[in-house]
Design brief:
Length: 467
């Protein structure tokens, strides 16, 4: 039996070991997929028991063989955790695995105690009103009692899960103490010296209370660590859903804008050139079919340029083949780079509507693409009357102005790439406008929609991604 001072030191080390081990476990993607899974089949429950029981069983073996690392024995607390998180199968199996080293060294009573703790905790999990009650368990029972009283004032409720779990932990720890009292060699238990003898001092009771409190603190601390990671994963999932919703809203803003302008062009041809109007309707149907059938946020530049070709076919019919010319200067190596879908159409539309449309003689549009220092550079240039860059990027412009399409492109680049993408506009007084996009080349751009890499651009703050 240890002195009270050494017991307190071991209790502090025990809390540190529990916190360090749980923090290390939740860094594993496989462990997180097991512990945060809503529904587990028996295979998952067995894997969860192995993940948590093996390292703790190693600590028990070190405690039994070295006989100095007493704080490494977290078998009772881990059995309780496995039961309350994974259910009776995980708790019972984990309790048995945890006890094997101790049984090998003659501490036979640890096996039934840990198995019982895992099964009881698993049964408590089944009767929990909500899963949040499990993850929000707190070792501070006074706060729990206060919340219970407040909840029971309007509608009295006899059973409170967190109080029941707290009582279960304390009760099982008391059972361990009783087993140790009658069969000291059959089980390991940190106990206050002379607690059960006559003339016990106040310090003895305080040390014993600290022992019981540490068991509850270990379980509560590990649950808090797991829950913090769980909340962070949920936050990232909400970020992803919010980003997808925002991108869908921006995409829907582009499509009606493009459709509105194209239908206006068709309506002007219906009366005096119905054949041409029919040709434009067929081309528009091809474009809309592509928009409706595609749900990808990113497409190869080649597909984006094919879409622009269909759009320009409509505009060529509208302006006349002699008044609108298209020049392409494309680097073949750049055509397979992934870019945001519907990125170039608003740029080409603004060049035609506000650069070339005012010119009686028409003009030309030049499309360029090239790779420079691991970046994709795309340029859209016209030789029209010129545009004011500040006006182009002002999202407050009303419908029909040049601002809505260009501001949309700028907003999408900001949401998707943050500061990694640049959009520059050069409008010359002598005529002509050059729009240049510099985009980072990403190996898998769809990952932008599933991680928090874009969160700083969307929320204005840094959020660390969980490994």
């Amino acid at each position: 039996m240890l002195e009270p001072r050494l017991i307190l030191v071991n209790l502090l080390i025990k809390l540190g070991v529990a916190a360090a081990l749980s923090s290390a476990l939740v860094r594993s993607k496989e462990f997180k997929s097991l512990i945060f899974r809503e529904h587990r089949d028996p295979r998952h429950k067995i894997y969860l028991a192995l993940w948590m029981a093996v390292p703790i069983a190693l600590g028990v073996w070190i405690r039994c063989s070295v006989k100095s690392f007493l704080a490494g024995d977290l078998s009772l607390e881990t059995a309780l955790l496995l039961g309350v998180i994974g259910g009776r199968l995980s708790g019972g199996l984990g309790g048995a695995l945890l006890s094997l080293p101790a049984v090998f060294y003659g501490e036979w009573a640890s096996l039934p105690l840990n198995v019982l703790a895992g099964i009881i905790a698993g049964q408590l999990r089944r009767v929990a009103p909500e899963q949040e009650d499990i993850w929000s368990f707190s070792p501070f029972i006074d706060l729990t009692l206060y919340r219970m009283i407040r909840r029971n004032l309007p509608r009295p409720r006899v059973f409170d899960w967190q109080v029941a779990f707290f009582a279960t932990i304390v009760g099982l720890r008391f059972l361990q103490t009783e087993v140790w009292r009658f069969w000291p060699r059959s089980i390991f238990s940190l106990e206050s010296p002379g607690l059960w003898a006559d003339g016990v001092t106040l310090n003895g009771y305080l040390v014993e209370a600290a022992i019981y409190l540490t068991v509850v603190m270990v379980v509560g601390t590990e649950l808090k660590i797991f829950n913090s990671v769980r909340i962070q994963i949920k936050l990232e999932e909400q970020e992803r859903l919010l980003l997808q919703a925002r991108m869908a809203a921006l995409q829907n803003q582009i499509n009606p804008h493009f459709l509105f302008n194209t239908l206006n062009s068709i309506s002007s041809l219906v009366r005096f050139d119905p054949d041409t109007a029919r040709e434009m309707i067929l081309k528009l149907a091809t474009i809309l079919r592509r928009l409706l059938n595609s749900t990808d946020s990113f497409v190869p530049l080649r597909e984006e340029l094919e879409f622009i070709d269909n759009y320009l076919d409509i505009e060529v019919v509208r302006f006349g083949r002699d008044k609108l010319k298209v020049v392409k200067d494309l680097d073949p190596a750049s055509l397979e780079v992934m870019v945001p879908s519907m990125l170039l159409q608003p740029l080409v539309e603004n060049c035609i509507k506000h650069g070339l449309s005012p010119k009686i003689e028409g003009g030309s549009i030049t499309l360029r693409s090239r790779l420079i220092k691991s970046r994709l550079v795309v340029e859209v240039e016209d030789d029209g009357v010129g545009m004011r860059a500040a006006h182009l990027l002002d999202p407050s412009d009303g419908p029909g102005s040049t601002g809505i399409g260009m501001a949309n492109v700028a907003e999408r680049l900001k949401v998707l790439y943050g500061d990694g993408a640049k959009m520059m506009i050069e409008s010359r007084e002598t005529g002509g406008t050059l729009i240049r996009l510099r985009l980072p080349i990403l190996p898998n751009p769809e990952e932008l929609m599933t991680t928090s890499a874009i969160a700083p651009a969307l929320f204005g703050k840094n959020l660390r991604k969980v490994e």
